[in-house]
Design brief:
Layout (H helix, E strand, L loop, with lengths): L3 E3 L22 H18 L1 H12 L10 H9 L3 H19 L6 E6 L2 E9 L2 E5 L8 H14 L3 E6 L11 H9 L5 E3 L2 H10 L9 E3 L4 H10 L4 E2 L7 E6 L5 H12 L6 E6 L2 H15 L5 H10 L4 E4 L3 H11 L3 E5 L3 H5 L7 E4 L5 H6 L25 E9 L1 H17 L3 H8 L11
Parallel strand pairs: 1-11, 4-5, 4-7, 5-6, 7-8, 9-10, 9-12, 10-11, 12-13
Antiparallel strand pairs: 2-3, 3-14
Helix pairs in contact: 1-2, 1-7, 1-8, 3-6, 4-5, 5-6, 7-8, 9-10, 9-11, 15-16
């Protein structure tokens, strides 16, 4: 069911492993751009009417309004299963602990006497938070989006999630309950590219936002790429992925369960095992067959995901090559199930989040580790970070120089301005000294 890629004995050029040798889904965001462009333009020009039409076309529901009524949010929280509420509250508590410690403080540097530069951290004014729907319901994504935005001090936020026919055209009630639990009262029944366009352009119901965050399908990712610049984005997050670096000490039951847990999300989800133990690889293959007989979503999600080109078992010569492989792969989620896992994890450079040892499965991070589960996919972890408080903050440099401090450096400023053939830049400094610039020291 799951393929093997044998890299043992392979020689790799200096600079690392060719990523094309590794499992990866074929996702053409560029092709999806042409599909989402007319949708986004339609929302831009027709607003709410377009959103209502797309709810019927894509979600199969007839809705009269897009904004979720306040009473629906309140009712969802009242009717929420007490056990689910308790779990969400603990997830929120742990996420707040971690994200509160990420808040940056303003810092002033005295460059010279009378000359300072202060870096001031200012939250984005208004954000749109996307929560996927469809195959699964993700109240945890409400927590992961809202908590860091709140801890950053964002003053205005709105959540969008696809309308559900089963719930009268509203988003799933557990998503609504999570919003109410977190004090978010602006929620929209809108999904896909049209929701991103609603946030970017605004409609009669929804004011435009400065930034859009949250995971979604390829059309959400394409809309983010199309509208980036008009709005800030966190990342073009695609289908989920897990990589597990394991040696002979790993338990095949744990490894197989974790591979399946990510395959459960989507037929395009990626599950990758990197190991130097052929015995472990064989045991995991057998265990996959055993565990698939006792779970849900096998034929519509898990089996297509595990058998797809994006998943596989990669055999390597040893730990060093294994580390090179996982760094080249740059997984959204990376588990380290090896001897001395903490030391091995400390050597990893590219991953959205790293889960250390046998008792830190990705599922823990999805819900209640305190970490954030909105993470870069598709190899983007080699240059991008997961969602955090910093995602919602902007650093602004505040420059404060006295006359004396400017006079001290004025000559150098004028010299550099003239070297760049920008004499007006120098003139702006000279004007403050009646065109008499003292020489710089």
């Amino acid at each position: 069911m799951i393929s093997r890629i044998d890299l043992r004995g392979a020689a790799f050029p200096e600079g690392g492993i060719d990523r094309d040798l590794l499992p990866r889904a074929e996702l053409d965001v560029e092709a999806a751009l042409e599909k989402v462009r007319p949708i986004c333009e339609d929302v831009r020009h027709r607003g709410t009417a377009a959103l209502i039409d797309y709810a019927h076309r894509f979600d199969g529901v007839a809705i009269e309004r897009v904004r979720v009524p306040a009473e629906a949010l309140e009712r969802a929280l009242v009717e929420l299963d007490p056990a689910v509420r308790a779990a969400l509250e603990e997830s929120v508590r742990r996420a707040r602990l971690v994200h509160r410690d990420q808040r940056r403080t303003d810092h002033t540097t005295q460059v010279v006497p009378g000359g300072t530069v202060t870096e001031r951290w200012v939250p984005v004014e208004r954000v749109g938070l996307y929560v996927p729907g469809g195959r699964s319901v993700y109240p945890s994504s409400v927590v992961m989006n809202v908590v860091p935005a709140q801890e950053a001090g964002v003053g205005s936020m709105a959540v969008a999630s696809p309308p559900q026919a089963e719930f009268g055209g509203l988003p799933h009630p557990t998503i609504l309950a999570a919003c109410a639990l977190l004090g978010v009262d602006e929620v929209y029944a809108a999904g896909g590219a049209q929701a991103v366009a609603m946030f970017a352009y605004g409609t009669g119901d929804c004011r435009p936002v400065s930034m859009v965050t949250g995971p979604g399908n390829i059309f959400v990712a394409a809309a983010k790429r199309l509208l980036k610049g008009r709005i800030g984005i966190d990342a073009e997050a695609g289908p989920t992925e897990i990589a597990i670096l394991a040696d002979a000490t790993a338990d095949p039951v744990h490894v197989a369960a974790d591979l399946i847990s990510q395959a459960e999300h989507d037929p395009l989800a990626a599950s990758v095992l990197v190991t130097d133990s052929e015995e472990l690889a064989a045991a995991v293959e057998k265990e996959l067959d055993v565990q698939l007989g006792a779970t849900k979503h096998v034929e519509d999600r898990i089996r297509p995901a595990l058998s797809g080109r994006q998943s596989g078992i990669v055999l390597v010569d040893g730990l060093e090559q294994g580390l090179a492989v996982v760094d080249a792969y740059a997984a959204e989620h990376l588990e380290i199930q090896t001897e001395d896992a903490a030391a091995v994890a400390a050597r990893v450079r590219n991953a959205g989040a790293i889960f250390v040892g046998a008792f830190a499965p990705v599922s823990l991070g999805d819900y209640a580790a305190g970490s954030n589960h909105v993470l870069p996919t598709g190899g983007c972890a080699c240059h991008s970070s997961g969602l955090s408080v910093q995602s919602f903050l902007r650093g602004i440099h505040v420059v404060d120089y006295s006359r004396e401090a400017l006079a001290e450096i004025a000559g150098h400023v004028v010299t550099l301005a003239e070297a760049e053939d920008l004499p007006a830049h120098g003139a702006a400094v000279k004007a403050r000294f009646d065109w008499k610039v003292p020489p710089s020291k």
